[in-house]
Amino acid sequence: MGEHATHLVWDWNGTLFHDIDAVIGATNAAFAEVGLEPITLERYRELYRVPVPLFYEHLMGRMPTDAEWLVMDEAFHRHYSDRRGHCGLTDGADTLLAGWRAAGGSQSILSMFGHDELIPLVRGFGIEPHFLRVDGRKGPSGGGKSEDMVRHLAALRSVAPGRTVVIGDAVDDAVAARHAGARAVLYTGGSHSRDRLRAAGVPIVDTLAEAVEVAGNLAA
Questions:
Q1: How do residues 135-188 score in pLDDT, each as one tens digit?
Q2: Which of 83, 123, 182, 206 maximizes the CB count within 10 A of its CB?
C-alpha cells in the first residue's frame, strides 16, 4: 500500500453489521430487568451517547451507580448475544468492501465490540481478507474509541492518518477520527439520528455506497 493511498477504517456495529433491531430488542429486554420503560428506535437514536453510562443518565435523570451499570451492561450483552445471530451485513457492504480492495484501496475495522467475538463474526461473513487489520474492544465496555483509534492506526504502519477516513454511525466515530488526525463520514443507518450526527461537523450519508464515495473524495 502506498503512503498516499486512502485508507478506510470501518466501524462494525450499526455500520457494516446491520444490528440495530437486535440492539433495540436487547436494550428493551435489559431495561425490563432494571425497571426502565421500553424505548423506540427514534428515541434511542436521539438519546444514545458514548460513553454509554451517559445514555442511561439521559434516561434515568441521573448517572447510574457502578453497580447499576454493571447489571445493565451484563443484561444488554446477554440479550444482544441471543439476537445477533439473526443479523447480517448492511445491504451492499460485501460488494463495497470487495470493490474498494480490488481498486487498490486499503481498509480495516475498529470496533468497540469485544475483540474475541468480533473476529469469528467477521470471519464467518467471509470478508476478513478485505482488511489489513480487525480490532475489537479488549478492555471494559461502554467507553469511547479515541485512544483505540490512535493505537489502531499506529499498528497499521504504512497508513498515514491524514489519508485515513473513518466510516461509522456515531458521533464518537468522528471524535475518534479527529483525535487520531483522520477524517470521518457518518452513516444514518445505525445508532444516531441525522440531527445528532450533525453535531460532529462531518459529512453525513444515508448509504454505505455514499460513504465510500465521499471518503474517497475527502482524502483525495
A1: 999 988 878 899 999 999 999 988 999 999 999 999 999 999 999 999 999 999
A2: 182
Give the pTM.
Answer: 0.93
Compute the distance between CA of residue 202 and CA of residue 213 in angstroms, rounded to an integer. 14
CATH code for 7-16+90-219?
A: 3.40.50.1000
Residue 212 confidence (pLDDT):
97
Q: What is the 3-state secondary structure (H, E, C) of the chain?
A: CCCCCCEEEECCECCCEECHHHHHHHHHHHHHHHCCCCCCHHHHHHHCCCCHHHHHHHHHCCCCCHHHHHHHHHHHHHHHHHHHHHCEECCCHHHHHHHHHHCCCEEEEEEEEEHHHHHHHHHHCCCHHHCCCEEEECCCCCCCCHHHHHHHHHHCCCCCHHHEEEEECCHHHHHHHHHHCCEEEEECCCCCCHHHHHCCCCCEECCHHHHHHHHHHHCC
